[in-house]
UniProtKB/TrEMBL annotation:
This is Tetratricopeptide TPR_2 repeat protein. It comes from Shewanella scandinavica. InterPro entries: TPR-like_helical_dom_sf, TPR_rpt. Gene3D superfamilies: Tetratricopeptide repeat domain. The keyword Transmembrane applies. PROSITE patterns: PROKAR_LIPOPROTEIN (PS51257), TPR (PS50005). The chain crosses the membrane at residues 12-34. TPR repeats lie at residues 212-245. Keywords: Membrane, TPR repeat, Transmembrane, Transmembrane helix.
């Protein structure tokens, strides 16, 4: 007689056990988003950015850059180091993120690891898929890398990065449009309602790939580094996205006047004439970043297939009602009030809206796979078989537990960026942004003092450079 070690009870648990083994093989890192939602991982680091020790845990974060979410951790580590003023370390981390994006671009065929990750996502959740950031994150990565080069004194390196940022605003839009052709047929009422809700939350922002802040930063660098024609082009692109910013309007009038552009008369009529600087004056350009982008939340929808409970968990954003006030800057003559150039939170919301149809494709495949697993476990025994019933229940519990929304995104980005500009006599000035501690800056004749202020709530860090 041949003995079998597989009892009806153990057979019922084989499928859940096999899948659980797969889970454990994927969840060895301290930072892992398959079961631990990403915002909760990053929250302590954001709190440290709002303290006197912003770099306390950056090594712990950076040690996971080679993992599943490595690209995202590299972006976060780069931003944390940058906010803290360590531009050299930030440059290193950002370059690791750039390399990761390039690796995505250069893949000629699907690798074994990609197949494994995709298969894992079918029985687990989208967090098993290696993170490839949305287009707006990649654009801002190069913009911030340009600022690293600039504040490190490498002007040519900065120009290379801002040009790459501009190129990406076009190429990422094209990539998105191509990807949508394959998923447009998957739209349904629930997704349509969610897309409409996110569209209302994003306000007037219609594309996550068109970022006035990036165009403005590019324009500033072109202008101060002696490329006014390129600056004019970038200011026009920024003004098309954020048309009501009066600083942008005056930049266009001024450059059109200086360059003898045919649009000068039109701009002058619409926005008034521009005051050209006195040769003995210098100019101060302020870039102010405030707050943090919001976290994605989870929207879970329960339903039944084959009489078994299943859930779908989608990422979403709550209504975007938090108002960011303009920054009042004292110490530069009369009070200077900054104006918004871009709402980064609206870009994040729009990016999620653009990705929802593709997310639905993956959800349909995963729900079907999970429901079939539960159904087959339930069929493994005769009616009333307790082992099969227990196994089916275990499979349903496993499916509910593993269905986690993909809430990953670059969370140390600012909520909003603001700008201001003023011509001043050469000398030393003490500026104060709202109630933040005062900071000294120098203004040189014929030069530009770029002031970059990063407000994380309790702390405002100010960096300046004369160009």
């Amino acid at each position: 007689m041949k003995l079998s070690l597989v009892t009806p009870l153990s057979r019922a648990f084989i499928a859940p056990a096999l899948v659980m083994g797969l889970v454990l093989s994927l969840s060895g890192c301290a930072y892992n988003s398959i079961f631990i939602n990403y915002p909760s991982q990053i929250e302590p680091l954001k709190q440290e950015l709002n303290s006197a020790t912003p770099l306390a845990d950056i090594d712990k974060l950076a040690s996971n850059i080679n993992g599943n979410d490595g690209l995202l951790y590299a972006q976060e580590a780069g931003r944390i180091a940058q906010v803290a003023g360590d531009f050299a370390a930030s440059k290193k981390y950002y370059q690791q993120a750039v390399d990761a994006y390039t690796a995505f671009d250069d893949k000629a065929k699907v690798s074994v690891s990609d197949i494994s990750a995709t298969a894992s996502s079918l029985v687990l959740n989208d967090n098993a898929i290696p993170y490839r950031g949305p287009g707006y994150e990649r654009i801002m990565l190069h913009q911030y890398q340009a600022l690293n080069y600039l504040f490190s004194g490498d002007y040519q390196g900065a120009l290379v990065e801002v040009r790459r940022s501009n190129e990406l605003q076009s190429s990422e839009q094209e990539r998105y449009q191509k990807s949508q052709k394959s998923v447009q047929a998957m739209a349904n009422g629930t997704i349509d309602a969610e897309v409409n809700k996110l569209g209302q939350a994003a306000g007037t922002v219609t594309s996550s790939f068109l970022n006035a802040y990036s165009y403005y930063t590019t324009g500033v660098l072109h202008e101060v580094l002696g490329e006014p024609n390129d600056a004019y082009i970038d200011y026009r692109k920024a003004a098309q996205i954020t048309p009501d910013n009066t600083y942008l309007q005056q930049d266009l009038v001024r450059l059109a006047k200086q360059l003898g552009m045919p649009q000068y008369d039109e701009f002058k009529r619409r926005w008034g004439d521009a005051k050209l600087p006195n040769p003995k004056d210098g100019q101060v350009i302020l870039i102010v970043e405030r707050g943090f982008v919001p976290e994605k939340q989870a929207l879970t929808v329960p339903f039944t297939i084959h009489g078994n409970w299943q859930t779908v968990s989608l990422a979403t954003y709550m209504p975007n009602n938090t108002f960011v006030p303009e920054t009042q800057v004292q110490g530069l003559g009369t009070v200077l009030k900054t104006e918004p150039i871009a709402n980064i939170d609206a870009l994040a919301i729009t990016a999620l809206k653009e990705d929802l149809p593709a997310t639905l494709v993956r959800q349909v495949a995963r729900v079907y796979a999970k429901s079939e697993m539960a159904y087959q476990v339930g069929k493994s025994g005769s009616p009333g078989n307790n082992a099969a019933d227990i196994g089916s229940i275990a499979m349903q519990i496993f499916n509910v537990v593993t269905e986690q929304a993909d809430r990953r995104s670059w969370l140390t980005l600012p909520k909003q960026a603001q700008i201001g500009r003023r011509y001043l006599s050469a000398g030393e000035y003490t500026l104060q942004l709202d109630k933040a501690p005062p900071a000294k800056i120098d203004v040189a004749a014929g030069k530009t003092t770029l002031v970059w202020a990063i407000d994380t709530g309790n702390y405002t860090r100010i960096y300046s450079i004369i160009i």
